Hints:
The chain is mainly beta. The protein has helices at residues 2-23, 40-43; strands at residues 52-53, 62-63, 71-74, 79-84, 96-100, 105-109, 112-113, 120-125, 129-134, 143-149, 155-164, 191-192, 201-202, 210-213, 218-223, 235-239, 244-248, 251-252, 259-264, 268-273, 282-288, 294-308, 316-320, 325-328, 331-334, 338-343, 359-361, 364-367, 376-383, 390-399, 403-406, 418-426, 434-441.
Amino acid sequence: MNQFRLQAAFLLICVYFIGYVNCAKGTDHHRRKGSKVTTAAMHSSSKQSTTGTTGSAGRKDVEFTAPMENVSVPLGKDGVFTCKINQIVHADHLQLVWLRLDSQTILAFENRLVQNNPRISVSHEDRRDFSLHIKAVQPEDSGHYACQINTNPLSQMRAYLDVLGTDHHRRKGSKVTTAAMHSSSKQSTTGTTGSAGRKDVEFTAPMENVSVPLGKDGVFTCKINQIVHADHLQLVWLRLDSQTILAFENRLVQNNPRISVSHEDRRDFSLHIKAVQPEDSGHYACQINTNPLSQMRAYLDVLVPPVISATETTEHATVREASNVTLKCAASGHPAPAITWSREDNMYITPRGEEKALTYNGTELSLERVGRADMATYLCMASNGVPPAVSQRISVKVEFPPMIWVEPKHVSAWIGGSATLKVHLAWNLYRTEVEATLCMRF
C-alpha cells in the first residue's frame, strides 16, 4: 500500500512539472490582420517630455533638454521648431529625423531634405540644437511635427504648428488626424506625382500582408516602376504603429540587429525582419518622397503556437460518486487555440447536456453525476494550426463506498474434504484489492 501511494504521488508531481514547463513556452502577443493602426501615442501629441531615454547602446544618457514648443504663426510668415539634445548627435550612432505626423511624412533626415518642398529647410548648432524652418506658412502647414532620434527605445518630441488668419487652422493640442491610417489595409497601385510633378512614378504591385510563425523570418517587398536615384527619389521604411523610421534607403535607422534592407536593381526594395517576435506584429510602410507622397502599407501577423496555462488548467480532480465535476483547460496563442478533450483509454465521454462522444470541444468539460466508469485520465489538446499542438493529462478519481465480492460464489467439497472461500474488497480508483481466504474442513 505504501509503495502504491508513493507511485501515485510521483505521477502527480510529474503531471504538475510538465504543465509548468509548457506554461513557460511561447507568448500571447498578437493582433488581427488588417486591424487599425494604434494611434494612442499620437493622441497625446500636445504633451511634451524631457526625461532621459535609453541610448542606442542601451545607456540612459541621451535626453531632450527642453520641450519642443507649439508654434502659432500668422499666414505667410515663417515658422520654426527647435529640438534641443544634451549631447552631440554623431551620425555613426545617433540619427535625427524631422517628421510631419498628420500625414506620416518624413521631412528631413539629419541635414538632408526628403520632401521636395522649397519652403522647408533644416539647420543645427553644434549638432545639439536642431531646427526645422517652414517659410511663408500656408493653411495646409498646420499640424503636428516631431523631432525623432533613433535611441532604443525611440526618443521623440512633438509640437503643433497653428497657422493664424485662416479658416483652416486648428486648435493647439487637437488630436492628430488618423483617417489615412485607418485605411492601412487598403493597397493602391495607381500612379503618383513624381518629384518633379510628373505622373511617372508608381508602385507596380501592392505590398502584401505577411503571416509568419513565431521565430521565422518575415519579408516585405516594395516594387517601383523605375529606378530610385538618390538625387531625386528617396525610399524610406516605416513602422506605422509606433511612427518609427526603420531604414532610409540602404541605411538602417533603428538599432535592431533583426532588421535589414535590400534591393534589386534599385526597383524592388525589401525589408527583412529576422526571427519575428509577437511585438513585431503591426503595420509597415514603404514610402517615396514624391509630391504628393507615395506610400504602400501592409500588415505583419506573427503566428504563435499554443501554450497551455498551468495556472488556469485543472491538474487533477477527486470527486465523490454521483457528484458533478468540471475540468478546465486554458491555452494562449495566435490565432486563438481550439481545445479538444478525449480520454487516454479512448473510451466515450459524456459531457453534461451532450451525447456521448469520443471527443469534446471547449475550454471546460463538465461531467454530471460521475460514476466509476468516469474514472480515467483525460487529455486536453490545444491547437491553432501553428505547430506544435500541445496537450495536458488530467486524472479524475471517483470516491465510492467499498465493494465486496466473493469468488467463486459456490464452493463444493466431499465429506471429510476441505474448501477455500475468497473475499475481495475494493474502494478506490485503482481498485486496490484485499483478499481474505478461509479454509474449512468438512
